[in-house]
Design goal:
mainly alpha; two-stranded parallel sheet; globular
Length: 233
């Protein structure tokens, strides 16, 4: 049962309050463009610029290079991605040792995925073991990765997550963020941050009122509040 101290706000009143909040169309357009640019939707950014007149604020040609690098990691072609990054800006991997290790770790995972056990062992010894000796965190990650070799069916192993496509995505996102940072761009789009802020605000409001929550962020649908608390008009 809900606390009787909470106010209950009906959806009609809630809609009225929301409608009273004025948001400039230009601000919404910049938010959309920020998402397209940061996530690398080049064609969509071009189209949106023409239709809305919103400048991207960056060279869209540079986005293509970044997306090709990201796509290479997502496809398992880590060596190609590393070469492309070094062509774009060699300081990125020189300065970010953790990112450099994760890329090499991903190369090791791909060798194991291909069943190249001897190549994997040789690669780990030459490129990853020295880094593990210098950094305990790297050593732990290396040991987890090497544990894959102990299982015929890696999908049933305790470290099966390393073989999942989401691991490639994780590495690709880390590399993408580093490239954005090197280009003095935002590492993450603003839109997801605003959605997190919305969820936080709703959690704070839950203790004070019964109101139409937005539980489905995809559709933006509001749910009608239900409780036996008297209505507040």
């Amino acid at each position: 049962m809900q606390s009787p101290d909470k106010k209950k706000i009906l959806i009609k009143e809630w809609d009225s309050k929301i409608a009273a909040v004025k948001i400039r169309k230009e601000d919404m357009n910049r938010l959309v463009m920020n998402f397209l640019v940061t996530e690398g939707y080049v064609e969509a950014a071009h189209t949106f610029e023409k239709e809305s007149g919103t400048p991207p604020g960056v060279d869209l040609g540079a986005i293509t290079d970044r997306m090709e690098i990201r796509k290479a990691v997502q496809s398992g072609n880590v060596e190609e991605a590393i070469e492309r990054v070094n062509d774009l800006n060699p300081e990125i991997l020189e300065e970010k040792q953790q990112l450099s290790f994760h890329l090499q770790q991903q190369r090791l995972i791909e060798l194991i995925r291909q069943g190249k056990t001897e190549d994997a062992l040789e690669f780990a010894q030459e490129y990853l073991a020295p880094r593990g000796e210098e950094n305990p965190a790297f050593l732990e990650e290396l040991e987890r990765t090497m544990a894959l070799l102990a299982f015929e069916d890696t999908r049933s192993s305790p470290v099966a997550d390393l073989m999942d496509i989401s691991q490639r995505q994780k590495t690709a996102s880390e590399l993408n963020a580093a490239i954005l940072s090197s280009q003095c761009q935002e590492r993450e789009p603003r839109l997801p941050g605003l959605l997190k802020l919305l969820l936080w605000a709703q959690n704070q409001l839950d203790s004070k009122a019964i109101y139409p929550r937005m539980d489905d962020l995809v559709s933006g649908t509001l749910s009608e509040p239900t409780s036996d608390v008297p209505n507040v008009y």
